[in-house]
């Protein structure tokens, strides 16, 4: 007669509590490096605590933003390089916050995965922590959820929410934009975190271009996978400094929808933004996608940032000062257009320089 059958365990069902605890321990030091003086307590509580200093603001407004990384994560999972996508995650959230003039205070992340591999989770969180340090916000906690049976063991998805603050009198609003203002472009670090469904369709479908090989059409000697995983540039501190040093009318974070699609979001209905394409050269990674996929220019422009990750609109007499501030902070920047009378549209003129 056989003995009693062994009872089912949570680990057998796809959730390894011990691995989750190990992941928390591995990420603890990285999280601590992001702490600001306002952070109360340590990692491991049920909620993150942040002591908000109301004395710094006359009429404080809390701002919040939520986003993810999207299908760029598929490249990380294919290459096994997991330490940069966390930077992308922070960038997508905090650069949205600063677009209204808000300083990001703290961020919480959410990681869903098929299997908790502590070292992989720690690498992801190390990237998130690095992004938080670049943005100046604290990582006060998050959640790692193991979805065994729903996601494959090597699959994961990321999301984050950040909270910031801006004085009500200092919110960047479209109604401050005037005819004659200058549009200043800030260079992107590459694809950032938009358009990767197109990238994967054009470059990787059917394994046309191995991720571990170099590509002659790119002005980069790194393997293709590393080029595609170049982290999104975080402009948060740069834009906050620009707001302090100059009179910024508005900021636009250039993500899905492209330059024109995001610039129109910060224009009043009485003006147009005219952007001169010939003021910058489109980075080779965009040219590679366009050429290999025979993607029309209009489709490229509404899918990708095309080399411009953030835009500031300033008065004409502040333009030189704004460019000097950004240059001093090692942000590639240039005047790319102007504000004219119109109906709230963003117009691209001329062809991109060869």
From TrEMBL:
Which positions fall inside the PurM-like N-terminal domain? Answer: 62-166
Its pathway is:
Purine metabolism; IMP biosynthesis via de novo pathway; 5-amino-1-(5-phospho-D-ribosyl)imidazole from N(2)-formyl-N(1)-(5-phospho-D-ribosyl)glycinamide: step 2/2
Predominantly, its location class is cytoplasm
Q: Which UniProt keywords apply?
A: ATP-binding, Cytoplasm, Ligase, Nucleotide-binding, Purine biosynthesis
Subcellular location per UniProt equals:
Cytoplasm
Instruction: Give me the reactions it catalyses.
Output: 2-formamido-N(1)-(5-O-phospho-beta-D-ribosyl)acetamidine + ATP = 5-amino-1-(5-phospho-beta-D-ribosyl)imidazole + ADP + phosphate + H(+)
The family database entries (SUPFAM superfamilies) matched by this protein are listed as:
PurM C-terminal domain-like, PurM N-terminal domain-like
Q: Does the keyword Manganese apply?
A: no
- The organism's place on the tree of life at top rank: Bacteria
Start and end residues of each PurM-like C-terminal domain: 178-347
Q: Is Nucleotide-binding one of the keywords UniProt gives this record?
A: yes
One Pfam family assigned to this protein is AIRS_C
Q: What class of enzyme is it?
A: ligase
Q: Which InterPro entries match?
A: PurM-like_C_dom, PurM-like_C_sf, PurM-like_N, PurM-like_N_sf, PurM_cligase
Q: Which residues form a coiled coil?
A: none
Q: What is its EC number?
A: 6.3.3.1
State the family it belongs to: Belongs to the AIR synthase family.
**Which NCBIfam families does the record match to this protein?**
purM
Listed name of the protein: Phosphoribosylformylglycinamidine cyclo-ligase
Natural source organism:
Fodinicola feengrottensis
């Amino acid at each position: 007669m056989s003995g009693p059958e062994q009872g089912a365990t949570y680990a057998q069902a796809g959730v390894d509590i011990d691995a989750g605890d190990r992941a928390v321990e591995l990420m603890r030091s990285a999280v601590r490096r992001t702490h600001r003086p306002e952070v109360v307590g340590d990692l491991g509580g049920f909620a993150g605590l942040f002591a908000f200093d109301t004395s710094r603001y006359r009429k404080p407004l809390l701002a919040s933003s939520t986003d993810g990384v999207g299908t760029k994560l598929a490249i990380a999972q294919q290459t096994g390089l997991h330490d940069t996508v966390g930077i992308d995650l922070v960038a997508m959230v905090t650069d949205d916050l600063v677009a209204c003039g808000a300083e990001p205070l703290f961020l919480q992340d959410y990681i869903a995965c098929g299997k908790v591999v502590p070292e992989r989770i720690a690498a992801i969180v190390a990237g998130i922590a690095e992004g938080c340090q670049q943005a100046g916000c604290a990582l006060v906690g998050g959640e790692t959820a193991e979805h065994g049976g729903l996601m494959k063991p090597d699959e994961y998805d990321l999301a984050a929410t950040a909270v910031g603050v801006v004085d009500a009198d200092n919110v960047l609003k479209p109604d401050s934009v005037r005819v004659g203002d200058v549009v200043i472009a800030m260079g992107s670090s590459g694809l950032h975190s938009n358009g990767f469904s197109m990238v994967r369709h054009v470059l990787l479908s059917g394994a046309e271009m191995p991720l571990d090989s170099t590509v002659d059409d790119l002005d980069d000697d790194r393997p293709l996978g590393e080029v595609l995983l170049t982290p999104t540039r975080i402009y948060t501190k740069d834009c906050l400094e620009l707001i302090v040093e100059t009179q910024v009318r508005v900021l636009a974070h250039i993500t899905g929808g492209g330059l024109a699609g995001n610039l129109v979001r910060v224009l009043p209905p009485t003006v147009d933004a005219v952007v001169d394409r010939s003021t910058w050269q489109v980075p080779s990674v965009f040219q590679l996608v366009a050429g290999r996929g025979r993607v029309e220019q209009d489709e490229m422009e509404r899918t990708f940032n095309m080399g411009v990750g953030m835009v500031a609109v300033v008065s004409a007499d502040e333009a030189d000062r704004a460019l000097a501030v950004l240059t001093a902070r090692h942000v590639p920047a240039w005047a790319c257009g102007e504000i004219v009378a119109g109906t709230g549209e963003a117009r691209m003129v001329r062809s991109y320089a060869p």
